[in-house]
Backbone:
């Protein structure tokens, strides 16, 4: 049996989190740009431990601005939701090493030196996703029900909550209010549950927004996702 390759840069636990990324998984890249960081979705391709990571960067016209920002040395924050047994949102920083356009659009970055995570199955505080509190009829008024937005668009979002006995599962079409903090003030968004998935002790909800468009745009201005 081949010896398991270890990392000189990451702990065994962090390396295992990184190994949980499977080629083809969707990741979120936050790219440093002059005006404001831009966040885009793309596919993870693979890695060479302690050397580099690879991501797919399309060559289509709408990606031109993004490709122009992927200069050697520019910093990127990578985020990914690890569902299944891990139940984590992981995030790490890398730098651009090279951008290829042939035979396919391919971004080569440095290997991360540190990985941070939000444990969806435990109470860990880290601002990697968008932390929210939820209000809906099925939750007790005295409960502080918290979750993390792990995907976001103009129409809706995906949130993850730790499953608890006193937090009933919200059914489809249930109305919910999401509260989050923006620059020190509280902002509330209303939505309806469109689907839900129970994965061990984490519940994932797909929500459709029902609030004013300007409230959603405020959130998107800080967390833009190109698909």
Residues:
């Amino acid at each position: 049996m081949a010896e398991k390759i270890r990392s000189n840069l990451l702990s065994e636990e962090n390396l295992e989190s990184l190994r949980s990324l499977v080629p083809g998984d969707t990741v979120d890249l936050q790219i440093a740009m002059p005006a404001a960081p831009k966040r885009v979705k793309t596919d993870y391709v693979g890695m060479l431990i302690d050397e580099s990571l690879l991501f797919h960067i399309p060559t289509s016209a709408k990606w031109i601005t993004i490709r122009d920002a992927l200069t050697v040395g520019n910093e990127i924050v990578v985020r990914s939701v690890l569902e299944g047994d891990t139940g984590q949102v992981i995030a790490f920083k890398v730098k651009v090493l090279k951008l290829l356009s042939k035979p396919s659009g391919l971004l080569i970055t440095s290997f991360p030196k540190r990985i941070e995570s939000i444990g969806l199955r435990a109470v860990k505080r880290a601002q990697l996703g968008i932390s929210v509190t939820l209000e809906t009829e099925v939750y007790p008024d005295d409960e502080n029900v918290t979750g993390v937005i792990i995907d976001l668009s103009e129409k809706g979002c995906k949130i993850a909550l730790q499953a608890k006995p006193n937090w009933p599962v919200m059914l489809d079409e249930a109305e919910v209010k999401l509260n989050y903090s923006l620059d020190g003030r509280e902002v509330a968004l209303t939505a309806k549950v469109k689907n839900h998935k129970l994965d061990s002790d984490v519940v994932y909800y797909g929500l459709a927004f029902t609030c004013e468009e300007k409230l959603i745009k405020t959130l998107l201005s800080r967390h833009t996702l190109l698909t």
Summary: Residues 213-222 form the longest helix (10 residues). Helices lie at 12-19, 64-69, 213-222.
